[in-house]
Write a structure and sequence with these properties.
The complex is a heterodimer of chains A (365) and B (421). With 365 residues, chain A is an all-alpha fold. Chain A is 69% helix and 2% strand. Chain A has a two-stranded antiparallel ribbon. Chain B contains 14 helices and nine strands. In chain B, the strands form four sheets. Chain B has a three-stranded antiparallel β-sheet with strand order 2-1-5, with no helix packed on it. A two-stranded antiparallel sheet of chain B has the order 3-4. A two-stranded antiparallel ribbon of chain B has the order 6-7. The longest helix of chain B has 38 residues, at 334-371. Chain B is elongated, with a radius of gyration of 28 Å. The chains are: A mainly alpha (365), B mainly alpha (421).
Chain lengths: 365, 421
Amino acid sequence: MRSYLLKRILIFIPGILFLVLLSFVLLKNAPGDPVEQILSGQHPEMSSSNPANDDATLRAEIEHRLGLDLPLFYFNFSDDTSFLPHLEFHTKNQFSRWLFGSSDSNGIIRGDFGFSYQTNVPVINIISSKIGWSLFFTLISILIAYLISVPLGLNLALDPGSKKDRAYSLLFTILFSLPGFWVAMFLMFIFCNPEMMNLLPSSGVMPTGGFDESLSISEKFIRTIPYLIIPTITYTYSSFAFLTGNVKNSIAQILQSDYIRTARAKGLNDKGILYKHALPNALLPLITIFSHVFPYAIGGSVVFETIFNIPGMGLTIFQSIGSQDYPVVITIFLFTGMITMVGFLLSDILYAIADPRISFQNTEQ
Amino acid sequence: MKKGIQTFYKSLNLKDVPAVLKIYILIALLSPVLANEKPLIIKYNGELFFPAFTSNAYFPIKDSEGLTTNERTESIDWKNIASEFILYAPVSWSAGHSDLENGNYVSPFAKQYFIDTNGDRKELPFSKRHFLGTTRSGEDVLAGLIQGTRISVWIGFASMFIAGIFGVLIGGLAGFLGDYKFKVSRITVFYFILMLVPAWYYSFTIQSGAITACFSNSIISGLLRLTLSVILFAFILLWPLLMKTKFRTRNYFTRKISIPIDFIIMRIIEIFLSLPRMVMILTIAAITKPSVSTLVLIIGLTSWTDIARITRAELLKLREVDFINAEKSIGLGIKAILFKHILPNITPVIITVLIFGVASAIMTETGLSFLGIGLPAGTVTWGTLMFAAKENFMAWWLVLFPGLAISILLISLNNYGKRLS
């Protein structure tokens, strides 16, 4: 067990390293010149800090503040083209400044993700104000999807090959194939359309202009609910068909195994077999399925948040791509990557704790 | 060997492809002929022209006084040309071209107009109608759907082709060599580590200028040039493997150690799996220059992991099967075993995964184009049509038809994949 955990955590480290490197490469390859974007006057307080300075000095100053005058990485080939490679090493470089920080910046390891080009607000503040809604919808939809699909999958696994099972599996193929954003548009077309049924608000998570100050928290919560209904349905929808299929397969597989036959042979009734022997074993793989559903939900949130105007990370990444605000884009990428990786790690560890066979198999290999 | 390839083809089992999928592929292939505002055949002043099959061509137009002027085929109002014979494509509109007379969301059932040569506003004849309505700027939805089919099908299949090649190669390497089969002498390993930096220098750093020049020329030539560099890189690093050197003395450097290829590849796959794929594709697509081929590459290079895992698992399963051992024992060569037994056995499984992969690639593509990321501005796809519906919920045809087009394709793909598995 301990060796398995150790191994699992050791794999986690190169994963994070790869993610960080990829983010850095993407950030450095983003089109547009950051100095130009800052200078283009989106936030005058920054460019007018030294009105006496001319353009070139200002440019140099901004470059220095962003650390762009440093070499890119720990080493590079020297510029003079010769037949023999000549490596140059740098202790002070943009990557280490970005990752670990330097005298004037904290680095992402201490939560300093730079400033947004557009608003000049620290990126970490943007993220922390947006991450709540994304995680709320992702987690609550996965929870609801589990609550629906476990009983449903159980029901379907009881008699595989029957008419009901085949009809349902066709239905799930169809449901699985419908793109989530189309379902979202369709629901909005029906329920938020003044011409059809004008029941629910079509965008946002709260009334435009916010709540009255006088309202209590419970009152605010009740007023928010209509805004949450359609987003929650679409979020749940996209993971529900996948989950049900998995639950069904996993239970159907277990019901054919030897120990179920033994249990039946010793005279246990069907209910006892199902709830005592089959279900606990069948539900274990669902822990790992969580780590497969979660990245999908996070990825899908970009489209859903854009459709419903939910002020979460997905909408922010979409808007930042539109306005070429790459520090925000890369930070959201890094954040979602971290979240999914930690989710993977936790689900693997939980699975190993719940099912000791896993850690045994993995250390044997 | 020849017989082996025949069995391999047979195992592909292409006869079972569902009709719906074939129709989609046919539409994708024939899309310029199916929806085009330029006529397929036109007989004008006794001469035959085929404007739909040309691009940037000129067409001699005679005005009332008998003067001929050459006009670009793209800018001619074909519907008002007095020709002796004219044959249009089934949908006589091009995707992305606005029809000003029928702008501002014309429903499929509403009256649609055109302006004839005398300047009168008349109702469109049935054969030239916008069968599935128009968008705000008057673009034909059906023509957009047909072009969208081309883009989606191309992206789906091409990206899975790339993913398939990568996945099978990497997974095959892992499954075939395993952890203990690949043995090299220590000195080769040291050579590999020592030469990493110089090999990178000679194959990429020096040639970076040439590679970027090729990429700015066209993406295909850039890729070919990059492949050349990769081959050079691999050759510099791996040439000791090609030479079967026999060392006379046995010491620390010449002793062979086994490289755990399987372990290394599986860990790389695990790292890839734990990245959020959609957000990664979105970010990379936002940073690179938008084009269809870039999108194909991005989707292809981020979705090979499933194929690699399945290939490896199948190879591991086959390694234990008796008939392979029997063949080894009767002295059959590795090539014969590979083509006659291993490939035919793993292709059906890989094709199943690929079919599901095509479905998910198409889903990714429509999601991206819905957000307007990854494809050049002005490209009409299923996703952009559906995004147009977000501005105006009255235009139900913009929600319904692209959604149906995607859903039917994905249902048939997923159902086909499920039947194969």
